[in-house]
Specification:
two-stranded antiparallel sheet, 162 residues, alpha+beta, three-stranded antiparallel sheet
Length: 162
């Protein structure tokens, strides 16, 4: 499984949160990571071409969340960053499969040589997802703080203390 370019880790946050109730922190932390990863997945799927959007998955662990694709790493890299002009033509069989799926009519050899000669621009859908997380991380952490505060208030109201 290819390593995703998007990985969010909460480092050092436990030192500041150790004075709070661990149960309320764990739930809030998980919700914060879920907010981040679900938003990133939505952005990546929206920008990904064709069936690639269905291959974009998420994984959430206690201090880490990631967005990744189950497709071959080489294919994902090519779709993400594109292909430079003036290189060797791409393999024919994957192009033939793509032509059948997309209904593209034409000569596969001409298409392959054209891609090799002219290249193509990348879609940068994973980079857009990473940018979304960076732009929204402050509000996600703010919501996490509110979640912890609300959970502490609920526990105090029940008599559990903080």
């Amino acid at each position: 499984m290819p390593r995703s370019p998007i990985t969010a880790e909460l480092r050092g946050i436990d030192a500041g949160l150790r004075f709070l109730d661990p149960e309320s922190v764990v739930g809030a932390r998980k919700r914060a990571l879920l907010r981040a990863v679900m938003g990133a997945q939505r952005v990546a799927q929206h920008g990904a071409p064709g069936s690639t959007s269905r291959s974009i998955m998420t994984e959430v662990k206690p201090l880490r969340a990631r967005v990744y694709s189950i497709q071959h790493a080489g294919k994902m890299n090519t779709l993400e960053v594109g292909r430079a002009a003036g290189r060797k033509p791409p393999p024919i069989l994957p192009l033939l499969d793509w032509m059948r799926r997309s209904g593209f009519a034409g000569n596969v050899m001409v298409l392959s040589r054209s891609i090799g000669r002219r290249g193509f621009r990348g879609h940068f859908f994973m980079r857009a997802a990473q940018r979304w997380v960076q732009n929204n991380w402050g509000s996600i952490l703010s919501k996490m703080g509110h979640d912890i505060e609300n959970e502490a208030k609920k526990r105090a109201a029940r008599g559990g203390g903080v």
